[in-house]
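Same chain as my last thread, 91 residues:
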Amino acid sequence: MAMAGARFAESLLKAAKGQKGVIEPTFVDSPLYKDQGIDFFASKVELGPKGVEKIMEVGKISEHEQGLLDACLKDLKGNIAKGVKFVKENP
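reply #2:
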C-alpha cells in the first residue's frame, strides 16, 4: 500500500506540473455505473493540473468477465451504502 500511495503521489505531482498522459488506477466518484446506483468505482483515470481530468471506460470484456463485473457491482453497491451510512452516523 505504501508503494501504491507513493506512486500515486508522484503521478499527482507530475500532472500538477503539466505533464500530459499521466494515467493511474484509482477509486473515484465515477459516472460509469451511477445509473445502477453505484457512485464510486475503481478505474484508470487521466490526471491533470486540476486532478482527475478523464475517467476511462472499462473497455471490451468477455462474457465471463461481464458476469464477474456484475457480481462485483452488486457487492460494491452494498459496501458503498454501508460506508455512506457510517460517515453520516459518525461525523
